[in-house]
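Practice problem: Putative small lipoprotein YifL
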Amino acid sequence: MRLMLLAVAAAFALNACGQKPAEAPTDGESVRQRAQEAQTARRRTGAELQERALNRVIRTVYLCNNGERLSVDFDNPREMATVRNSNGEAVDLFRERAADGLWYRASGYELRGEGVMARWTADSREPTDCRAVD
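Answer key — structure tokens:
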């Protein structure tokens, strides 16, 4: 009996010391609002996305009208791009100032474009139009 009284007294004491934890709302509108707030907190700003892109290497694959497939590593910190063609040959190009889009070149090679479209010029070959596929 004494043990039971001690347990009941302890339960009352513990209950008096702390507040009950707030229960999370379970109605549809409250749940939707909490989900939106959590998602908004995870979104990156445009400046954060730009900073992230400028400080890493980005790989893009282009399919060209002449049937060539180009894999391009844009090394933004070093301001250069490495272009690998279907035969596995690679050439390093250096970034040039462009009014719009991208422009990389080096001795007879040039990659120039805007958005998903680019024009690839390889030494001693006709220029070809290419489209980014990923």
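Discussion: The CA atoms of residues 18 and 119 lie 69 Å apart. Students who identified this feature from the tokens alone can consider the problem solved.
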